[in-house]
Amino acid sequence: MNYQDRIVRDRAICGGETVLRGTRVTLRTVLASLAEGATVDQILADFPTLTTDDVRAAIAFAAASAAEDLPTPEVPRLP
């Protein structure tokens, strides 16, 4: 999933917050909904301008961000 095709930031849209392209739905809103336990179908019902691929892009963005921001734990070595 190439999230970069679906996630944009524009000062003229939602004060420059990161949104899903072609919508005014913020990335933060989608991720918060997922964190609260909403299903993809529930998010799509709440935000009809989104597609399944938009929600997947939000998840892919979060995964890529976590991979960049979190230190890689050291793997114990066997003697």
**Strand order, biggest sheet?**
1-2
Which spans of ≥5 residues are poorly predicted at pLDDT below 50?
Answer: none
Biggest sheet overview: 2 strands, antiparallel
Class, according to the CATH hierarchy?
Answer: Mainly Alpha
Relative helix content: 40-55%
CATH fold type: Arc Repressor Mutant, subunit A
Overall pLDDT score: 88
Domain count: 1
Rg (C-alpha, Å) = 15 Å
Keywords:
single chain; 79 residues; mainly alpha; Arc Repressor Mutant, subunit A; two-stranded antiparallel sheet; 3 helices; 2 strands; 8% strand
Any overview of this molecule?
This protein has helices at residues 27-35, 40-46, 52-69; strands spanning 7-9, 18-20. Strands 1-2 form a two-stranded antiparallel ribbon. The longest helix is centred in the last third of the chain and has 18 residues, at 52-69. It has a single domain (3-68), classed as Arc Repressor Mutant, subunit A (Orthogonal Bundle), CATH 1.10.10. 43% of the residues lie in helices and 8% in strands. It is built from 3 helices and 2 strands. The radius of gyration is 15 Å and the shape is globular.
